[in-house]
Design a protein that fits this description.
With about 250 residues, the chain is an all-alpha fold. It is about 70% helix and about 0% strand.
Length: about 250
């Protein structure tokens, strides 16, 4: 396991870090490497107030991933283990590239053009990450639909939690922030979760899907009390959160 990746995820993405620790030992290293990669990409737009510099940071990651697919590894504490994973697990570089490209929205302060653009942002970031994690754990192609649907629901739940911070940073996170619209959006996330449950799954993808252990509870809460989103009060108790993670890890269900 890359200690640098583990430290980064533990410090900056505690939810996914807990999910990785709840996964079987053999799955932890691939998960932590991909979670660290996701963190590096996600934070790139926020490290500077200069859009051009942020664009250059994201382009560095796009080029680094492309280089790694050709066997050229750039010097970086995350890139080295990621390059090994790309080659060892035959990760789809095109999916990784779209994940990076999706984060360009975070650089600028324009609102999403429409619902399709918002959906694509969640799809190419959170849903794609969950599928990449499953691929790294040798999940077969038929597991992609379930992983992406689960990843989309989990990504939406996390995004709704981040709405107040995004607004504080000058972004326009929601197309429609009215409570009734937020409730409808949460229902769409629950619908995607239902799709995931109906779709074909594979045991290899289960550790990757642990990262969404809070999704259903958070989305149900957002649907019932949508005002919590704007108030920054969309969260679960520590007791409930840990209980859900333990149940999903032991049962393999979500």
């Amino acid at each position: 396991m890359s200690e640098a990746c583990a430290r980064l995820v533990e410090r900056s993405d505690p939810r996914r870090f807990q999910a990785a620790l709840a996964a079987p030992l053999v799955a932890r290293a691939p998960l932590l490497v991909l979670y660290a990669f996701n963190l590096e990409v996600a934070r790139a737009p926020w490290l500077t107030t200069e859009p051009m510099i942020a664009e250059m940071r994201l382009q560095w990651w796009r080029d680094a991933v492309e280089d790694a697919s050709r066997g050229v590894v750039r010097a970086h504490e995350v890139m080295s283990p990621l390059a090994d994973l790309i080659s060892g697990a035959d990760l789809p570089v095109a999916v990784m590239d779209r994940l990076i490209e999706a984060r360009r929205w975070d650089i600028y302060k324009q609102a999403f053009e429409d619902e399709t653009a918002f959906d694509a942002y969640i799809e190419d970031s959170s849903a794609a990450l969950m599928w990449l994690c499953a691929k790294a754990l040798k999940a077969p192609p038929q597991a992609e639909l379930a992983c992406r649907a689960m990843g989309w629901a989990a990504g939406l739940a996390s995004y709704l939690q981040a709405v107040p911070e995004l607004e504080a940073r000058g972004r326009v996170p929601l197309i429609d922030g009215r409570p009734e619209a937020v409730a409808r959006l949460a229902q769409r996330g629950l619908d995607r979760l239902a799709e995931a449950r109906k779709a074909a799954r594979h045991a290899a993808s289960a550790p990757a899907m642990l990262a969404g252990w809070q999704a259903e509870a958070l989305l149900r809460l957002a649907r019932a009390e949508p005002q919590r989103v704007a108030a920054g009060a969309l969260h679960l108790s520590e007791f409930k959160s840990r209980g859900l993670l333990v149940w999903q890890a032991l049962s393999g269900r979500f």
